[in-house]
Amino acid sequence: MMKDESMFEAVRAQLSHAVPYAVHTGVEILAVDAGEARARLVEQPHTLNHVGSQHAGALFTLAEAASGAAMVGAFLPRMASMRPLAASASIDYLAVARGTIEATARIDGDAAALQATLDQEGRVRFPVTVELADETGRSVARVTVDWHLKSLAEAA
């Protein structure tokens, strides 16, 4: 099945404005695809910590937004009939983050198998792995966000 690039572009544009805190922080969704996404955080005075590097909370916000975009990309045809929630997350800070940081997120697992589980059980939980890198390509953090999706029919 050929993917519809315009659908992914529309989702990218929508997600860039969907979460007020991510918008406040300055997170920009760069790309959304089937189970993958990229996002960016440009360093700004309000994203810095007390030592002048990107604040841990700003980095987490970037990673969570990218993970959500990857999740939406994997389940795009079904999003109107689901309730997605970030169920848990973990972050490993690997290096001091300065300048613009880019996040690359990918769902862990086969999207078709995850969709089949959702169809059979009315819910599915899976991790999305996010790598954060600075402008030189140096990895500054690694994040895992566990997403829980429930069909609205199941939630009722």
In short:
With 156 residues, the chain is of the alpha+beta class. It is built from 5 helices and 6 strands.
Q: What is the count of β-strands?
A: 6
What gyration radius follows from the Cα positions, in whole Å? Answer: 16 Å
Structural class: alpha+beta
Fraction in beta strands: 35-45%
Describe this structure in words.
- The mean pLDDT is 91.
- The chain has 156 residues and is α+β, with helices and mostly antiparallel strands.
- It has helices at 5-18, 20-25, 56-75, 111-121, 152-155; strands at residues 27-33, 36-41, 82-93, 101-107, 123-133, 139-151.
- The protein is elongated and about 50 Å long.
- Strand 1 (27-33) and strand 2 (36-41) form a beta hairpin.
- It is built from five helices and six strands; from the N terminus they run H-H-E-E-H-E-E-H-E-E-H.
Strand and helix layout:
Blueprint: H1 5-18, H2 20-25, E1 27-33, E2 36-41, H3 56-75, E3 82-93, E4 101-107, H4 111-121, E5 123-133, E6 139-151, H5 152-155
Antiparallel strand pairs: 1-2, 2-4, 3-6, 4-5, 5-6
Helix pairs in contact: 1-3
